[in-house]
Amino acid sequence: MSLLYDLYQPGDSWLHRLDPRVKVGLVFCGCSLLLLFRNVWLMLGALACVGFVLWSAGVARERMAWVARMTLPTMAMIAVLWVIFYRGEGRVLFSWWFLEVTASTIAEGLAVALRVGALALLILAWLFTTDQTTLVHSLVALGMPYEWGLTLAMALRYLPTMGNVFGMISDAQQARALDLTKGNPLKRARAYLPITVAMLITALRTAQSLSLALESRALGARRKRTYLHRLHFRRADLLWTIGIMLATAALLWARLVWGFGARPY
Q: What's the pTM?
């Protein structure tokens, strides 16, 4: 399955064994703290910590390289645009036309770029170490309505299916002399019309078959659901939960009361 459709990497690391509900809490607390702090050194430290977590979880180098290719251009663009369009406080280091560069502007731009990278790595650490079924099961266990979880599970399941169908239809149409490369962007977009029509027909047929399958299994007949596999909260998961809550509370106190991490550098 393509990496774009299923990010999970099987393994037996400490992060794989961690209860998925704890990982949801870790991602939520980590994202909240990253959005609250604005210090460039803290963002650099957070990025290094999340990278170490991925390394300790045994994430493959190919996946790490894929993450770098996806995030580094965005981070560089954010840092440059921040310096161009935002004016910071302090002494001006460089001035030309409307552009005024200060040390504060550079630090803030780097902090925002590093924050984006840390957020991406943190969320990917969750997705790399949690399979789709367990991920949806954990969200339902945390209070998500089962119908929403079923919708999410079906979306994750049929993304690669529809992607493969799109590739097969595209190859078949191009074998029948359909050219998708010539002309201006509008003409190339119109050339996809036969593929779009075939995709819509396939999607409608798939939806009908899926609805019949769910109805034949009596979906919604009973309010209380039963599960083949249940999540088990271990002592280690409890310790991780307590540690995450204490660390989050301490950092929130330091930020809101003492102003820790409020300055760009």
A: 0.79
